[in-house]
Design brief:
The chain is α/β, with parallel strands linked by helices and 251 residues long. 46% of the residues lie in helices and 13% in strands.
Length: 251
Amino acid sequence: MRACLALYDKDKLNNQIPNFIIMTQASAIHIIADDREQLSPVIEALRQQEGVKVSVSRLDLGDYRVNDRLLFERKTMLDFAASIKDGRLFDQGIRLAASSLHKAIILEGNGRDLMNCGIRREALQGALITLSMFFGIPLLRSLNPEETAKMMIYADRQCDSLASHHSPRIVTGKRPRGKRKTQMRILQSFPGVGPSLAHNLLEQFGSVEAVLAADEHDLLNVAGIGTGRAKSIRWAVGESITLYEENDLPI
């Protein structure tokens, strides 16, 4: 209950919720915002929330880090489309998926914002499928910066609430045993790569990052990868989506 109240105006609830619940103090929330977000209205919206402390510094990953356990990448709809065009989205998705923190991408705005973005609907849907199904990153929707701020606060309160019920699914620390599973899932999203080849790629290169940096010649040294698969992997990670039409995909 306390978690839910963080999202609403307390004055509107005075006639519905007992006073002892409204007066309950939640633990403080510390949010680190990436300095590239410092002009975002989300930061001001966060600072207006009771019990929230916001600091601004450079983050290696994500836009907002909440209590060192939650990580959020915030994208307006237009930025989401632009990141598909220039290839940033794929790289950010891989790095987010490999993080030991609970993470999510918040898409801010509405569908009308994408009407003139220059991206095919199929490409947008493909990006959403890849991020959610293959990278395992939740995609959250908000209408505006204020709702984005409240969503991050609610997520942290929900984490507290679930942890207080001793749920075995809630893990707030690092999860090294799950890292290889995440890496395998990411690699299996590449064209022509199944569990066996994903295993071989990790054995050869040691990390997803190294696989992304590998050229076609290096990929050919991996057991089970021929010229066709090597070209397909390089196509997936090396070029902007706008450089290809649907019939240009390598066989």
